[in-house]
C-alpha cells in the first residue's frame, strides 16, 4: 500500500487518530505488564505449591487443595470484585501504608490475577508430577538419589515437558481474562477500546481493532511457546534433524 | 416475503401520511437503575420521571408501548439493531450521537454536579488547586466529555460504567471527587454521611432527547408533537414535581 493512501485514509477517519492510537498503545502496555507480572508471580508460587499438593500428609496437601479449589471454583470477575471493593471496605485500611498499594486499581487486579493463575498452574504442574512414570523414580532411587535430588533431576524436568502444552493454554487464557481488568477502571486494551467506543459510538471499529491487538499478542505467545517446546522436547525429534 | 414487506411498508407510509397512526407499536428502552429517572420501586415496578413521561407520551400518541430494560453500553447498537424503537434513558444530545441516531427536541436538562467528602477543600474551577486530584465520571457521559476536555493532564480521570461502582470508590477514598449528573449525585452521594456538594453545578449541552433511528422521521414528528403538548398542558409539570424539587424543564 502506498503511504499516501494510508495518510488519506487516516485523514478521512475520525477514530484512528494519533491520540486514540496512543490510547490503545498505553492500554497494550498495561495489559502486557499486568499479564506478564501475574504469570511470573503465579508460576513462581505454583511450582512449590504443586510439590506440596503431591505430598501424602493431608495437613500439607489439604490447604493447597482448598486454595486451588476456591480459586478454580469461582469466576475471576468475582475474585476481582471481592479484592478490589472488599479491600477498600476494611475499616481503617485507608490510614495504613497498604492503602498506598491498594488505592490504585493495578495492584488489586494483579493480586487477583496472580492468585487465579497460580491456582490453575498448580493443578497443571501437579498433574504432570503425579504422572511421572514409576520406573524413572525407582531408577533414581536405585542410584541412591534422595528426595530433593530426585525432584530436581528427574521429576521436575520431565514434569515440565508434560506441563508445557497445558501451560501455554493457561497463559493465553490469562491474556484474554485480563480484559476484565477494565471493570475496575484500569485502562488496559479493553479499557481503551471501551473509552474510544463510548466517545465515537463506533463499536465495530473500536472492538475489532482491539481484537486484532489481542490476536497479535497471542501470536507472539504461541511463537514463544513453540520455541520452548522445541527446546524441552528436543529428545523426541528424529535423530539428525 | 419481500412483496409482503413492501406492501406492509406502503400501508405504513399511507398511515403516516394520512390520519394519525392508530395503535402504533413502540418499544422504549431504559437503563435502570438511574434514580430518579428510571428505577424499580419496592414492588419491582419500573418507575421514575422518564418512565412516567414516556407513559404520558404514549397515551398522547395513542401508541401501544412496551418498556424494555437495556444496559447503557448497548443502547445505541440495540436501537440500530431494532431491538427497540425509542431510547428515553437520559441520553444527552451530542453531535457525535446525532451522527448515529435521530434526536427529538430536548425534554429535560440537568446540570452536572461536583460531590465529594466533607474534607474536600479544593476549588473545582481552579486548576491549580485541583492538580493531582482523582476525579470519577461515568464513561461516555457529557460529564466525561467536560472533564476530559477541561481537565486532562491536571487531574487523574477514572471512568466507570455505573454510578454505583463510582460511588463505592468515592466512599473507599479511591476518588477525591465525582462529577455526575446532579440528581444522580443527590440520590447516591448526598444520602450518605460525610459527603457534600463541593462546587457549583455546571450546565452542559443541549439537554436530553428521545433517540430514534435516523429513518424513523415520522415517529420523531409524533414524539415532538406529543412532548410539546405535554409541556403546554401541565402534564409535564405535574410529573416533574413528583420527582424534582427544582426545574429541569427545557
Overview of the structural elements:
The complex is a heterodimer of chains A (241) and B (250). Chain A is built from ten helices and no strands. The mean pLDDT of chain A is 91. By secondary structure, chain A is mainly α. Chain A is flat, with a radius of gyration of 22 Å. By secondary structure, chain B is an alpha/beta fold. Chain B has two domains: 22-109 and 206-243, Periplasmic binding protein-like II (D-Maltodextrin-Binding Protein, domain 2, 3-Layer(aba) Sandwich), CATH 3.40.190.10; 112-197, 3-Layer(aba) Sandwich (D-Maltodextrin-Binding Protein, domain 2), CATH 3.40.190. In chain B, a hairpin with a 5-residue loop joins strand 2 and strand 3. In chain B, helix 2 packs across helix 9 and helix 2 runs antiparallel to helix 10 (235-243). Chain B is globular and about 65 Å long. Chain A binds chain B through residues 85, 88-89, 94, 99, 103, 105, 183, 185, 194-195, 198-201, 203, and chain B through 73, 76-77, 96-97, 99-100, 139-140, 144-145, 158-161, 165, 168-169, 171-174.
Mean pLDDT across the residues of chain A is: 91
Biggest interface, CB < 8 A: A-B, 16 and 22 residues
Q: Widest sheet of chain B: strand order?
A: 9-8-10-7-11
How many helix segments of chain A?
10
As for the number of domains of chain B, it is: 2
- Runs of chain A in which pLDDT lies below 50 for 5 or more consecutive residues are none
Which stretches of chain B are low in confidence, meaning pLDDT under 50 for 5 or more residues running?
Answer: 14-21
What level of helicity do the residues of chain A show?
over 70%
CATH fold naming of the largest domain in chain B:
D-Maltodextrin-Binding Protein, domain 2
| CATH level-four homologous superfamily name of the largest domain in chain B | Periplasmic binding protein-like II
Sequence of secondary-structure elements of chain B: HEEEHEHEHEEHEHEHEHEEHH
Protein name (chain B): Transporter substrate-binding domain-containing protein
Family (chain B): Belongs to the bacterial solute-binding protein 3 family.
Pfam families (chain B): SBP_bac_3 (PF00497)
Subcellular location (chain B): Cell envelope
Amino acid at each position: 500500500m502506498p503511504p499516501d493512501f494510508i495518510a488519506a485514509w487516516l485523514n478521512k477517519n475520525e477514530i484512528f487518530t494519533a491520540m486514540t492510537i496512543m490510547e490503545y498503545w498505553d492500554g497494550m502496555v498495561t495489559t502486557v505488564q499486568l499479564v506478564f507480572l501475574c504469570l511470573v508471580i503465579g508460576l513462581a508460587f505454583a511450582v512449590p505449591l504443586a510439590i506440596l499438593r503431591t505430598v501424602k500428609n493431608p495437613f500439607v496437601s489439604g490447604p493447597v487443595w482448598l486454595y486451588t479449589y476456591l480459586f478454580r471454583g469461582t469466576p475471576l470477575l468475582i475474585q476481582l470484585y471481592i479484592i478490589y471493593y472488599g479491600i477498600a471496605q476494611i475499616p481503617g485500611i485507608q490510614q495504613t501504608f497498604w492503602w498506598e498499594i491498594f488505592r490504585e486499581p493495578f495492584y488489586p487486579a494483579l493480586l487477583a490475577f496472580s492468585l487465579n493463575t497460580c491456582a490453575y498452574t498448580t493443578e497443571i504442574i501437579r498433574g504432570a508430577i503425579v504422572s511421572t512414570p514409576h520406573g524413572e523414580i525407582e531408577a533414581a532411587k536405585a542410584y541412591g538419589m534422595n528426595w530433593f535430588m530426585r525432584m530436581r533431576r528427574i521429576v521436575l524436568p520431565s514434569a515440565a515437558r508434560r506441563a508445557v502444552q497445558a501451560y501455554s493454554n493457561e497463559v493465553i487464557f490469562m491474556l484474554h481474562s485480563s480484559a476484565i481488568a477494565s471493570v475496575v477502571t484500569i485502562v488496559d486494551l479493553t479499557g481503551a477500546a471501551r473509552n474510544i467506543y463510548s466517545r465515537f459510538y463506533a463499536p465495530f471499529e473500536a472492538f475489532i481493532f482491539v481484537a486484532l491487538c489481542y490476536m497479535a499478542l497471542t501470536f507472539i505467545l504461541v511463537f514463544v511457546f513453540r520455541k520452548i517446546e522445541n527446546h524441552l522436547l528436543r529428545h523426541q525429534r528424529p535423530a539428525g534433524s | 416475503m419481500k412483496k409482503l414487506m413492501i406492501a406492509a411498508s406502503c400501508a405504513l407510509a399511507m398511515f403516516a401520511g394520512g390520519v394519525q397512526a392508530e395503535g402504533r407499536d413502540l418499544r422504549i428502552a431504559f437503563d435502570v437503575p438511574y434514580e430518579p429517572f428510571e428505577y424499580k420501586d419496592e414492588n419491582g415496578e419500573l418507575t421514575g420521571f422518564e418512565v412516567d413521561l414516556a407513559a404520558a407520551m404514549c397515551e398522547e400518541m395513542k401508541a401501544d408501548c412496551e418498556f424494555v430494560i437495556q444496559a447503557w453500553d448497548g443502547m445505541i447498537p440495540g436501537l440500530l439493531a431494532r431491538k427497540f424503537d425509542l431510547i428515553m434513558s437520559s441520553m444527552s444530545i451530542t453531535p457525535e450521537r446525532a451522527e448515529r441516531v435521530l434526536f427529538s427536541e430536548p425534554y429535560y436538562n440537568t446540570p452536572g454536579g461536583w460531590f465529594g467528602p466533607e474534607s474536600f477543600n479544593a476549588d473545582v474551577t481552579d486548576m491549580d488547586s485541583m492538580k493531582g486530584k482523582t476525579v470519577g465520571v461515568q464513561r461516555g457521559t457529557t460529564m466525561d466529555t467536560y472533564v476530559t476536555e477541561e481537565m486532562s493532564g491536571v487531574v487523574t480521570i477514572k471512568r466507570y460504567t455505573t454510578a454505583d461502582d463510582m460511588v463505592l470508590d468515592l466512599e473507599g477514598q479511591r476518588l477525591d471527587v465525582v462529577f455526575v449528573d446532579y440528581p444522580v449525585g443527590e440520590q447516591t452521594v448526598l444520602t450518605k454521611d460525610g459527603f457534600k456538594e463541593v462546587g457549583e453545578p455546571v450546565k452542559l449541552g443541549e439537554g436530553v432527547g428521545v433517540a430514534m433511528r435516523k429513518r424513523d422521521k415520522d415517529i420523531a414528528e409524533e414524539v415532538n408533537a406529543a412532548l410539546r403538548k405535554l409541556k403546554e398542558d401541565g402534564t409535564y409539570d405535574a410529573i416533574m414535581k413528583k420527582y424534582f424539587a427544582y426545574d429541569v424543564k427545557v
